[in-house]
Amino acid sequence: MSNISSNNDTPTDVCSSGAASKEMCTSCEQNKNVGLSDSNNTTTNIDAVVFGIDKMSISNTSIRLSMCANCGKESSDSDMNTCNKCNSVKYCNAACKKKHRSKHKKQCEKRVAELNDEKLFKQPPPREDCLICMIRMPILNTGRGYYTCCGKTICCGCVYANAKIDLKKQLCPFCRTPNSISDKEMMKNLENRMESNDKEAIYNIGCGYYRGKYGYPQNQVKALELWHRAGELGHAKSYHNLACLYTLGEGVQEDEKKATHYFELAAMGGDAMARHSLACLEGKSGNTDRALKHFMILARGGLSTSLDKIKVLFTHGHATKEDYINALRAHQAYLDEIKSVQRDEAAAHDEQYKYY
Q1: pTM (2 decimals)?
Q2: Any idea where the domains of the chain sit in the sequence?
Q3: Most CB within 10 Å of its CB: which of 52, 91, 141, 219?
Q4: Tens of pLDDT along 242-252?
């Protein structure tokens, strides 16, 4: 195939604008009239064009102004003091911000609650795929296993398949390292993983301190500290544990507000049981619409018990038939993603491999 002709291939008797000759070209006549053929005029017109471009650039980068919510004074966005809770209003200085606080408080709290709900009722991302079979991980804890040697989480199907092959050797299905048999070996592996900020290792060490397992002394203060650290690294189950402690008053003073806060953080991070607890709390408070939202998210995420809850809401007129049908379809879609022959075989062999 031939190449597209360049401008140099244009015949000299044809104007670049497409006219048969320059005399017939309107644009050329206009250029001729303004004197572009003259060198001095050419320089003048080029300067004018450049000036126009510079002027456009200045107008495009104009400074954005905002108005102080207290005194009404206008100032640039960069100089304004924004409300650090709702981020919806701006002030010219800290004094105006403090003066306006009482008037803004109700609006601020409402906006903060709206922003929190946007995060809370957003569908969490699905769990990652198993590193061996490359099938989506189930949400049930019995459907997967964590290995302290390499810090990898492997699905129950691959764990079972590996156990059948290496029944005597007991090797890690991923890195092929011999499994830790004694508490001392497990402690060493967990502490090595903790140095690498492995959130799962930090969580497990916290569990060890809380219950006095794996060779760790029972220390609830240390457990809470480690669960906080793991939660900040993205371990949702750690926040769920903290919520349970504040609910029951174990090791800490009972605090319903803090419990709800940690339940919400855990739910946002994808912990199904934390969201289930929130849904039940909303249902008991009469907020059935919020409870339904939670259960619908759980159905899409794979928690089968949420289907029964949605059915109860439907029976009492708090959910529609369409809601229940959508929940059933969403849950089936989840099952289609996680099911495999290998996992079914593992679950049939032993309850410890149950994955849905």
Answers
A1: 0.76
A2: 65-115, 126-178, 180-268, 277-335
A3: 91
A4: 999 999 998 89
